[in-house]
Amino acid sequence: MKLYIKYMVSLRCKMMVKEELIKLGLHYVIVDLGMVEILEDISQQQHDQLKINLAKSGLELLDDKKSILIDRIKNVIIEMVHYTDELPDVNYSVYISEKLHYDYTYLSNLFSEVKGITIQQFIIIHKIERVKELLLYNELNLTEISYLMHYSSVAHLSTQFKKVTGLSPSFFKQLQEKRKRNLENM
User: Fold this and answer.
1) What distance lies between CA 175 and its chain's CA centroid?
2) Which of 39, 54, 60, 103 is the Cys-Cys partner for 27 at CB 3.0 to 4.6 Å?
């Protein structure tokens, strides 16, 4: 049986969900971002208790089919951008459609209707968050980051970065380094 959990976006969340399942005597096969597969059917009492326990940690057990699908779209994007070493070589629309086994137009329309932004805008926001992380790690230069994140050029990355954050990548990096120095001098 599959269960879908909203706001489950980190390894820490996965560990917490595993603990809650064990407490309820449920045996999991897979605990992935936003999705859990358990061996047995869940009773209404276990379902209600799991819902309460997850809510205490800021997670939400999803019941509505649209909410589940929206959450699955978000988790595919988050996993793709933040937790894989390389972004897929195919178009994001093809990748998402293949992962979820739905027509991309349907997914796109549903996502826009419910979230108020397009899937593409959601991807861009997460790509820029990932670029921020990579800038802070200071292991790659901007050219390497733009290549890794599948931007056509450093200029394209810089334009999107400024559109989303209001800052250029280099100014963002300078601000973070200045904050770091200030904290070290305290």
Assistant:
1) 25
2) 39
- Tokens coding 105: 């137009």
Count of other CB atoms within 10 angstroms of residue 73:
23
Q: Helices marked H in 4-141 — which ranges?
A: 11-23, 44-56, 65-82, 92-100, 104-115, 119-137
| DSSP designation for 118 | -
> What number of other Cβ atoms are within 10 A of residue 3's Cβ?
23
Q: Alpha carbon of 52 to those of 10, 59, 89, 136: distances in Å?
A: 20, 9, 41, 37
Domain with CATH 3.30.70.100 in the chain: 1-63
Q: What is the mean pLDDT of each run of 10 residues along the chain (186 residues)?
A: 86 91 92 88 91 92 86 92 79 93 95 91 95 90 92 95 94 84 73
CATH top-level class of 122-184 = mainly alpha
Residues of the chain with CATH 1.10.10: 122-184
- pTM, rounded to two decimals: 0.72
